Sequence to fold (160 residues):
Amino acid sequence: MQAPLHERIEALLAPLAEREGFELVAVETAGASGAPLIRVFLDRDGGVDLEAIVAANRWIAEALDAQDPVNGPYTLEVSSPGVDRPLTRLTDFKRFEGHVASLKTTPIEGRASFTGTIVAVDDDTIMLDVDNESVRIPYRAITKARLKGTVDFGKKGTGD
Fold:
């Protein structure tokens, strides 16, 4: 059985991203299999600016066209992960301990959605503080996870 498209693309792009000085945060696919939308999220120390995105778009498109994991037309979106950064690996959860995350899971005691602070991470479990209650989430139960970013617009000036 062939791996899902996003996993094949991630395997193709991860070493290229590293070579180019990026962290491949996530690959998402959406839309019809005949012409999918491929979203590639990249990051690096100091962040990702527009110039870096344009350059990355070129080498990503070249790699996709050369290896053709899609077998046809596709739409490519390349961006930074933004404030709602996807958490796709156990190491992501460890890296962002102390931050608030939103998780979708297979049902755990009748619940499949959790938002809370990442308190601890062990070999296969994420500990979240959800409304002052500790909740253990098995890593294998997580179907989607993102940081819950906050934006500080600062204080409005007084016009002085």
